[in-house]
Design goal:
About 80% of the residues lie in helices and about 0% in strands. It is mainly alpha-helical. Helix 2 runs antiparallel to helix 7, helix 4 runs antiparallel to helix 5 and helix 5 packs antiparallel against helix 7. The longest helix has 22 residues. The protein is elongated, with a radius of gyration of 23 Å.
């Protein structure tokens, strides 16, 4: 549009990130990816072991999927995050103690962050902005007092 300044890609990404539980979804996906990368059993061994071996690959893959779903469909974040925490805790038994605790902790933290995220919240105000507003308000008050006197 001619009269409108172009926004930078960084500002557009910041807006997109602000409208969803970004860090929760990212941590859940990273936790699942870490567990998948630390799996030691080959597919031949997994098929020999049976369902326990398949669950070792299935749960972290579903964690990655749930993390991406939280990012791209935040309206259903409660269901995805509850399922994600169950899958994260399930990896304790199925996947090298949850990817040697790292994937388990990443997944559980991400699921909790996504569960606790609230849409349409007031944006946080930095300390610098609060001080600036307080000074402006103090200046307006002092001008009002001087005019009244």
């Amino acid at each position: 549009m001619p009269g409108r300044p172009q926004r930078s890609a960084r500002a557009a990404f910041r807006d997109w990130r602000g409208r969803r539980p970004f860090w929760g979804g990212l941590l859940l996906a990273l936790g699942g990816a870490e567990i998948l990368l630390t799996e030691k059993a080959s597919l031949k061994v997994v098929m020999h072991i049976g369902m326990q071996g398949v669950a070792g690959y299935l749960l972290p893959a579903l964690m990655v999927l749930l993390g991406l779903l939280i990012l791209f469909n935040p309206a259903q974040r409660l269901f995805y995050s509850l399922t994600g925490i169950l899958f994260s805790l399930g990896t304790w038994l199925t996947s090298n103690l949850g990817g040697f605790f790292i994937g388990l902790l990443l997944g559980a933290t991400g699921a909790c962050l996504a569960f606790g995220w609230l849409p349409d919240q007031e944006p946080r105000v930095s300390r610098r902005q609060r001080r600036k507003r307080a000074r402006a308000l103090a200046g307006e008050l002092s001008e009002g007092v001087e005019k009244a006197a």
